[in-house]
Write a structure and sequence with these properties.
482 residues, mainly alpha, Amino acid/polyamine transporter I
């Protein structure tokens, strides 16, 4: 077997084109779509949820075009941490890197909590922390093998998700047209009660965070570019699938759920995270006459959870490795094993997954909600870093005298794309839990916004610690970036 070629930062380029395609397609399909989508419809109505997901989808498309331009020209594992450091400043890059590591490390913990909740469907008497421990060991072992092992595992886990959504859409539209499942409800659920827009624009803004969290993982293509066999060829292809993925999987699924399930349905109105196994996908499949729908969807949701945990462990370990190579983290995390895996960085990230054991202390639902909120804002901040870095990247590229025609992939809507994405992100970050602010609920405010002061403290702390040290001058077009 041919050994994968090393990348410029020491990692192995073991991710093939099919891995990159499936990472792009399946990277953002997870519990946000399979589970949380029901909550968005109950809160904002079918029309409001559709608008929220569409707006976030447009923003994500613009961001991935920005990331595609940078990652095909400079394919490194540090991705937007490296771009933020080189094209904005080292303090901003430091904060972006640690924020992103924190985001995915916490996501791994949140997915472990969710795994314990889903497993309770089959094993109601077993404590969630046991399953969290089992899955943590499995994911760590898979990531420790090689980048190719990660890619292969993600390929098949993502394939399960993609097939499920496709089958769901086929069944859903067949029910809408009355082919299966009895009499079609038509558009009655769009006129029931206050539908289609429940609570107006404020409700739409309030579900932005859930919609945004659903899309988080799309940027994994940029991180994986550092270990892709041919990033100049494979990343643009992956980026170009994003528009159709957003339209087919997210907009299509939200439309089907909104057509078939009233926003006042008690199953959608449930606010307890312990009811995570009650998926709107399950409800639709059951109404289509699939007897084993609940067991099927629980298995699919479990695969989605493991996929998110697998991706989170991979992405955060590579980000920590890149920061260590760049002097932003202890050097021990820059060590690789003979298969090109940053084992120390991976183990530190996995240790954060021990937060999954919070299920045994404060209860599954509370732990999942807290971890979900903390991770959600950190992901938005990372996206802000992509938008800002791309704007500066293009300026630096042109200032160096290079031709835009030489870029392997060019973002088609620059400068409007990153500017519009930046503005939408500011609105989302400011308004994701406005109700907690109005109600003076300090606990909810803390869980929703704690990522913001953490990011600012990282930025300020690095500036205070290094402000007297001369900044390294790097020519990104000729230098080997970490």
């Amino acid at each position: 077997m041919t050994e994968p070629a090393p990348s410029q930062d020491g990692l192995k380029r073991g991710l093939k084109a099919r891995h990159m395609q499936m990472i792009a397609i399946g990277g953002s399909i997870g519990t946000g779509l399979f589970v949380a989508s029901g909550g968005t419809i109950s809160e904002a109505g079918p029309g409001g949820a559709l608008v929220a997901y569409a707006l976030i989808g447009i923003m994500v498309l613009l961001l991935m075009q920005s990331l595609g331009e940078m990652s095909t020209r400079l394919p490194v594992a540090g991705s937007f941490q490296t771009y933020a450091t080189v094209f904005v400043n080292r303090h901003f890059g430091f904060a972006i890197g640690w924020n992103y590591w924190f985001n995915w490390a916490i996501t791994v913990a949140a997915e472990l909590v969710a795994a314990g909740i889903v497993m309770s469907y089959w094993f109601p008497d077993s404590p969630g922390w046991i399953w969290a421990a089992i899955f943590l060991v499995l994911l760590t072992g898979l990531n420790a093998l090689s980048s190719k092992a990660f890619g292969e595992g993600e390929y098949w886990l993502a394939a399960i998700k993609v097939i499920t959504v496709i089958v769901f859409l086929i069944c859903g539209f067949a029910m809408i047209f009355g082919i299966i499942g009895g009499t079609s409800p038509g558009f009655s659920n769009w006129t029931d009660g206050d539908a289609p827009f429940v609570g107006g624009w404020l409700s739409i803004v309030s579900v932005f965070m859930i919609a945004g969290f659903s899309f988080q993982g799309t940027e994994l293509v940029g991180v994986a570019a550092g270990e892709a066999e041919n990033p100049q060829r494979d990343v643009p292809k992956a980026i170009k699938t994003i528009f159709w993925r957003i339209m087919l999987f997210y907009i299509g699924a939200i439309f089907v759920i909104g057509m078939l399930i009233p926003y006042l349905d008690p199953s959608l109105l449930s606010s307890e995270a312990s009811d995570i196994a009650t998926s709107p996908f399950t409800l639709v499949f059951e109404r289509a006459g699939i007897a084993f729908a609940a067991a099927l969807m629980n298995a699919v949701i479990l695969s989605a959870i493991l996929s998110a945990g697998n991706s989170g462990l991979y992405a955060s370990a590579r980000m920590l490795y890149s920061m260590a190579k760049d002097g932003k983290a202890p050097k021990i995390f820059a060590r690789l094993n003979k298969r090109g895996v940053p084992v120390p960085a991976m183990l530190l990230t996995a240790s954060v997954g021990l937060f999954g054991f919070l299920t045994a202390i404060i209860g599954q639902g509370e732990a999942y909600t807290w971890l979900l909120n903390v991770s959600g804002l950190s992901g938005f901040i990372a996206w802000v870093g992509i938008a800002v870095s791309h704007y500066q990247f293009r300026k630096a590229y042109l200032a160096s005298g290079q031709d835009l025609a030489d870029l392997p992939y060019k973002a088609p809507l620059f400068p409007l794309g990153p500017i519009l994405a930046f503005v939408i992100l500011l609105v989302v970050i400011a308004g994701q839990n406005y109700q907690a602010v109005l109600d003076g609920n300090l606990l909810q405010m803390a869980s929703s916004y704690v990522g913001l002061p953490i990011f600012l403290l990282l930025w300020l702390g690095h500036w205070l610690a290094t402000r007297k040290q001369p900044a390294e001058v790097i020519d990104p077009w000729t230098a080997k970036l970490n």
